[in-house]
């Protein structure tokens, strides 16, 4: 079984600790890592007691937004759950999933236009269905959509009309999931046959503003505010950085053949270290605006620092001024077959698992995941 765990830094100098190669920075003999909760690297010469590592925390959603979802639950409303196909884990919220269990849900796999045309809709649908089942959700239907290309908007409208049966409809989705674009595309086909007006007002009990679209004289569609998971990089970086890491055109996969002790650097935001294993092809799915650099692992810290401090790479953010602003996670791959390693909100790397050891560095608080391949 594949294992992922947060790994430690030397409290003396901040270097990431490792026991694979004494010629690389941060080396500590394995026996010391096993015996002590925290150790200093060999360069710092001595041991001192430290605290236990903190595991990645569960993603959280704004409490006011959960108030809206709770109201939808009380009404037994129809839910349109907008999911970002590019950054699925930044839009698929465990808290929201728990709140909407057992409701009627139309899953909208959004931003189809970002994926290569060679990827079949059926494969995408299978992925979304599997992830939903793992979360304990049952989608009444799954619509693969692209507002930009006007792809399947008619199908979504048809599902909505057939399934709501006089009930209110709540459209929910994360920030940058494309929810607003989807609602706008739906609105272009919407005809208000009622005496009520489309309005925007705070939802009762919250300060969050919700667009109310009348569906008939007694029911409405509520376009809710986008929520942001605090484990997504999108919740941390500046607006201009978001514009660069959230793709708006079809992603061009970039593949790197790496031998052990080589690294890939993603803008000034994250790093992927291939610590141990046979030469492997790693295909990177990131926004085309994110520059990707290769480095020898032994020089990776210095290379990253140089790129960030001298602004030689795109994008950079105020939240990452140094490699010490990144948390490190070690991934021990036991499974064979293709896998994705992803950084929530930024992108993912696809490769064939074969007993590799990989280290991923991401901004503090941003979730790193390993799962079956998306495409």
Word description of this protein:
It is a single chain. The chain has two domains: 3-14 and 248-371, no CATH class; 63-223, P-loop containing nucleotide triphosphate hydrolases (Rossmann fold), CATH 3.40.50. The chain is 21% helix and 28% strand. The chain contains eight helices and 18 strands. It has helices at residues 30-35, 63-75, 94-100, 121-134, 153-164, 179-187, 239-245, 300-309; strands spanning 3-6, 78-84, 104-110, 141-144, 169-173, 199-202, 209-214, 220-223, 254-258, 262-266, 270-276, 280-286, 292-296, 326-332, 336-343, 347-354, 357-363, 368-371. A seven-stranded mixed beta sheet has the order 4-3-2-5-8-7-6, with helices on both faces. The chain has a six-stranded antiparallel beta sheet with strand order 1-14-17-11-10-13, covered by helices on one side. A five-stranded antiparallel beta sheet has the order 9-12-16-15-18, with no helix packed on it. The radius of gyration is 23 Å and the shape is elongated.
